[in-house]
Design goal:
The complex is a heterotrimer of chains A (249), B (414) and C (315). Chain A is 28% helix and 31% strand. Chain A has helices spanning 37-51, 68-78, 94-108, 127-135, 188-194, 235-246, and strands spanning 2-7, 9-11, 33-35, 57-64, 82-87, 112-116, 138-148, 152-159, 162-169, 172-176, 199-202, 215-221, 230-231. In chain A, α2 (68-78) crosses α5 and α3 crosses α4. Chain B is α+β, with helices and mostly antiparallel strands and 414 residues long. In chain B, strands 1-4-5-8 form a 4-stranded mixed sheet. In chain B, strands 2-3-7-6 form a 4-stranded antiparallel sheet, with no helix packed on it. Chain B starts with 10 loop residues before the first helix and ends in a 13-residue tail after the last helix. Chain C has 315 residues and is α/β, with parallel strands linked by helices. Chain C has 8 helices and 16 strands. Chain C has helices at 16-28, 42-49, 70-80, 93-105, 206-220, 228-232, 263-269, 298-314, and strands spanning 2-6, 31-38, 56-61, 86-90, 111-114, 116-117, 122-127, 132-138, 143-147, 163-165, 175-182, 195-199, 223-226, 253-257, 274-279, 292-295. In chain C, the strands form 3 sheets. In chain C, strands 5-9-4-1-2-3-10 form a 7-stranded parallel sheet, with helices on both faces. In chain C, strands 13-12-14-15-16 form a 5-stranded parallel sheet. In chain C, strands 6-7-8 form a 3-stranded antiparallel sheet. In chain C, α3 crosses α4 (93-105) and α5 runs parallel beside α8. Chain C is elongated. Chains in contact: A-B, A-C, B-C. At the A-C interface, α3, α4, β7, β8 and β9 of A face α3, α4, β5, β7 and β8 of C. β9 (162-169) of chain A pairs antiparallel with β11 of chain C, so a sheet runs across the interface.
């Protein structure tokens, strides 16, 4: 069984990103980049399926600038077998990402596509669902447990009211939520070993997909910042202030 | 700024650095934050937190320097020391004591890789790899002195007090070692001892491999240090300690071959120091952008901005020198000995100033246990002494720069 | 201009998020229709018909729509899409699952998590965990939106829209429902609560959530929330997680107990009217956005707070 894992290079989740003062976009100069945390969980799940003998090959694919090869290399160090980098220097909308991934899936014919439920930069939460739609496959989003059977899949999903379990037949698209697993670190020895694994470089034109954006970004700005308030000395003072000043009690 | 420029690193170096950073941010920093007020109450055992060592194991950072044929990994040799610097800085950014604990393993592993006979490598490297608690130590310093005593005088009187004598098929070691990094916790020790009392130290010192459970070898004490407290520094005693003759590493010329260890060691020392400086800067930059005094955040006060700029500038200057020196060591440049000592001594003095600024900019909070800045200050201070004092390092620089004059051992002018 | 909103409901009951999405849709302009898709869901459709400003309710009641799996609901919306300019839904886990599927099949780029509707078809949405607000406009012939319910007031009651039934088109069955493990709680639901008491990993155990935090919540009639760390540690179930990728809330009062304030958590609660933080670490980032901070041990401060509140109420 072959698994395709889609990974995105995003800003480090611990960094608070600010808007450029001219309002044209986020200020990403000198911001550290990293693999989208949800995609890391997706890679980990694929590697565990392979370690359990349920998968035979893991192909990691990323769409982004040259530096996104770091993200792919991390996936390879975690245990993916080979990588595909589709070079795109501009921001790519989820719809175009889904179209590129469909083209890769057509070529690679995976039994399962795994990816994160959401990228923490644009917070769109669309790609997996769109890809499933374009492929005409079933989808299991926000997965917190994946059980692979013979040509079937049982996935427990994190939903607003708790958990929902659904069944699917393969091929299918699964998007990972936080509690699906705890991803391993790319260990230093495995980083050295991953150096020998291949990464194929492609362009969107190779797949005949246009990256022309559908949304026009008019401006970006930072929301009004909340100022730190005051420190209170005791629970009693807190209750007084919530009642008298804030009027919420 | 402040951190290493990604453009100067190979892809592997970047990924290794990132992996270490995740480990530090996820595991080490939360542990340190939760425990820095307890630094003075923790037992030596508590300082070896299993979660931290397990994490170190997951990223495979304990066993760098172990060759691939024994299950380790070969870093690119042409940038090995630079990689060590990068990783030790990253770990020290989380905790310098932890960094010290781990780098000791790399330094000793390199020494073993270069000088230990194959059968000893085949015996000890696999044990090092399989036990997450397995640490190594390098034992040079004695109660009567270290390089301060040996460096000026290559005469029999200034030799090591620890002696090793061959008795049949065993070496018998007697003496004491002190201020040994990992001394309290290590499983395997490289021990230096005098094997020829008639000549100077450079010609009469041998090195041996001593397993912890060897009869006659005792760990007598865990030193309570002012900084780097998560590394357990120890005192060792050898009383008729018999080790098999084949555990000899280098006969008589061990001090010369230890250079392999010293050079990388100085760079790593400077890099750990840099990590403490980066932690000081990050914490302080965050603090002054969030705390308000006189109605505006601290960073908008010019006096604060000046100090912060000074911190950043010193860090960048240290980084530039560390990078140049590590490149010189990796390339075996003739000036490598000079540069690695320069990097070590400069880092220790400059980062001390950076830590002082951090303390000052935190105001009263800087002095409080609960803010953790005083810990960084103590961690910075200990580097002035660790792996040679400032004065001894400076002496080494001049001896190497002027070998014909300063390099000669003291005595009557010829 | 007509908007179709996929309503959030539990078949026999309509969620308040739907009325909030109606407010957003009315700001876009034109008629607003609601789609109730489910099984035995006429009660929800009747509740939907009473929302002020709703012109029509479409009711699709079908076995194939039970549990609102993505594939059949998306097929249903697609079959209706021809008559609409805007397809929208409150950004619940159900809609987040379904709407991108609809958008892709219409070859439309979805606008996720709309927090404001502006002039000329402009929408605002948070990116980078809410640290940046992006204003976008769509060039697609149709628009597909998800609406962040906490950013809009609920539309009023008093409407009487007609209910029209629609049929689920045939579509391949790609997934099947196996089971639910839904949390049962007598406390208010996170999304609609006026007060939320939220706990972090510092609470230390599930028992402490029950024995220390819950009594405070109950004395305030509050909902309980949690940080990711507390959910990951297994102290509470996933549906209580507040944050960038969990529940986004904006109550009148949010009391964060033992929560350090990671960017991802702040993203889920920083629009609360009043924020209180209780933490023993004076450097915890949560204090930077809290209106009232109390540096104290949780296990002393929370019971004290509870007795102070009860004393206030009985006074």
């Amino acid at each position: 069984m072959k698994i395709l894992v889609a990974v995105k290079m995003v800003t480090d989740p611990n960094v608070k990103v600010r808007a450029l003062t001219d309002g044209t976009g986020p200020d990403l100069a000198s911001v550290k980049m990293a693999m989208n945390p949800f995609d890391e969980i997706a890679v980990e799940e694929a590697v565990r399926l392979k370690e359990a003998g349920l998968a035979t090959e893991i192909v990691a694919v990323s769409i982004g600038p040259a530096k996104a090869s770091d993200t792919l290399r991390t996936a390879l160090a975690m245990g993916a077998d080979r990588g595909i980098l589709i070079r795109a220097d501009q921001a790519v909308e989820p719809l175009a990402v889904a179209k590129l991934l469909r083209a890769v899936a057509d070529e690679e014919a995976p039994d399962l596509v795994l990816t994160g439920k959401q990228a923490i930069d644009d917070d769109s939460n669309q790609t997996g669902q769109m890809l499933a739609a374009l492929l005409g496959w079933g989808q299991a989003t926000f997965a917190s447990r994946v059980k692979l059977g013979d040509g079937t899949l049982e996935v427990t999903r994190e939903v607003d009211g708790g958990l929902q379990t659904i069944g699917l037949s393969l091929p299918a698209v699964v998007t990972a939520d936080l509690r699906l697993n705890e991803p391993r670190y790319a260990s230093l020895p495995n980083i050295m070993k991953a150096k020998k694994k291949p990464i194929a470089e492609k362009s969107p034109a190779d797949y005949g997909v246009s990256l022309e954006p559908r949304l026009r970004v008019i401006r970006v700005e930072e929301p009004p910042t909340r100022q730190a308030g005051i420190k209170v000395g005791s629970a009693a003072e807190l209750v007084q202030r919530l009642h008298n000043e804030a009027g919420v009690l | 700024m402040i951190h290493a420029d990604d453009g100067s690193l190979s892809e592997e170096q970047r990924l290794m650095r990132d992996s270490c950073r995740s480990y530090i941010d996820d595991v080490v920093t939360p542990f340190i934050r939760a425990n820095w007020q307890r630094e003075w109450d923790m037992t030596p055992g508590e300082r070896l937190s299993p979660e931290i060592l397990q994490g170190a194991e997951q990223i495979g950072v304990r066993t760098l320097g172990v060759p691939e044929e024994f299950g380790g990994i070969d870093l690119d040799r042409e940038s090995e020391v630079r990689t060590f610097a990068l990783i030790s800085e990253e770990i020290a950014r989380g905790d310098s004591g932890l960094s010290d604990k781990l780098v000791q393993n790399w330094k000793v592993s390199i020494l073993l890789r270069e000088f230990a006979p194959k059968h000893l490598q085949a015996k000890w490297f696999p044990r090092l790899l399989e036990d997450p608690q397995f640490l190594l130590a390098h034992c040079l310093t004695e109660p009567r002195g270290a390089s301060d005593r040996w460096l000026p005088y290559n005469v029999p009187e200034a030799s090591m007090n620890t002696r090793a004598v061959l008795d049949g098929d065993h070496w018998v070691i007697n003496g004491r070692k002190q201020f040994i990094s990992n001394g309290y916790d290590a499983s395997l020790y490289v021990v230096y001892a005098n094997t020829n009392p008639k000549v100077g130290m450079l010609q009469g010192t041998s090195s041996f491999l001593v397993p912890r459970d060897t009869p006659g070898f005792t760990v007598t004490k865990c030193n309570e240090t002012m900084g780097c407290r998560f590394m357990n520094n120890g005192e060792l005693v050898f009383e008729d300690c018999r080790i098999p003759a084949d555990h000899l590493l280098v006969k008589d010329q061990a001090m010369g071959s230890a250079g392999q260890y010293f050079r990388a060691g100085k760079i790593i020392q400077a890099a750990k120091n840099l990590g403490v400086g980066v932690a000081c800067f990050e914490r302080t930059a965050d603090y002054v952008q969030n705390y308000v005094q006189g109605g505006r955040i601290l960073i908008k006060h010019q006096a604060v901005a000046i100090r912060l700029a000074d911190m950043a500038t010193r860090i960048e200057a240290v980084r530039a020198l560390v990078e140049r020196a590590s490149k010189a060591v990796d390339e075996n440049h003739p000036d490598a000995d000079i540069l690695c000592n320069m990097a070590k001594v400069y880092a220790s003095e400059e980062i001390m100033k950076v830590a002082t600024h951090a303390l000052e900019l935190h105001g009263g909070n800087g002095a409080m246990l609960e803010f953790g800045i005083e810990k960084l200050f103590r961690d910075a201070a200990i580097f002035l002494h660790m792996d040679a004092t400032v004065d001894v390092s400076n002496m080494k620089i001049i001896k190497n720069m002027f070998p014909k004059t300063a390099g000669k051992y003291a005595g009557p002018e010829e | 201009m007509t908007t179709l909103i996929l309503a959030e409901h539990q078949d026999n009951h309509l969620d308040e998020a739907t009325a909030k999405a109606v407010t957003a849709a009315r700001r876009i302009g034109g008629d607003v229709h609601l789609l109730i898709a489910g099984k035995d869901c006429r009660p929800a459709a009747e509740a939907a018909a009473r929302i002020e400003g709703v012109a029509k309710v479409l009711l699709a009641d079908d076995d194939g729509l039970a549990n609102r799996l993505a594939e059949p609901v998306a097929a249903l919306i697609l079959s209706l899409a021809g008559g609409y300019d805007v397809l929208a839904a409150p950004a619940t886990s159900t809609a987040k699952n379904i709407m991108p599927r609809v958008a892709a099949l219409l070859d439309v780029m979805q606008i996720s998590d709309v927090i404001a509707v502006g002039e000329d078809g402009q929408y605002q949405r948070p990116i980078y965990a809410g640290n940046i607000i992006q204003t976008v406009a769509s060039d697609d012939p149709k628009q597909v939106l998800t609406i962040r319910a906490s950013a809009f007031p609920a539309a009023g009651q008093g409407g009487s829209a007609p209910i029209e039934t629609v049929a689920l088109p045939d579509s391949p069955r790609l997934s099947s429902f196996v089971g639910n493990e839904l949390s049962e709680s007598a406390r208010p639901e996170l999304g609609g609560a006026r007060i939320i008491v939220s706990g972090g990993r510092a609470l230390g155990s599930a028992e402490n959530f029950d024995n220390v935090l819950a009594p405070l919540a109950d004395s305030l009639g509050a909902a309980i929330g949690a940080s990711r760390a507390a959910v990951d540690a297994g102290y509470v179930s996933n549906d209580l997680q507040v944050g960038q990728t969990g529940k986004i809330v904006a109550p009148d009062l949010y009391i964060a107990c033992g929560i350090s304030g990671a960017i991802q958590h702040l993203a889920g609660m920083k629009d609360s009217k009043i924020i209180v933080a209780i933490n023993k670490d004076p450097e915890a980032p949560i204090f930077q956005i809290a209106d009232y901070g109390l540096v104290a041990d949780l296990f002393e401060a929370i019971p004290e707070l509870k007795s102070e509140i009860e004393a206030k109420e009985s006074a």
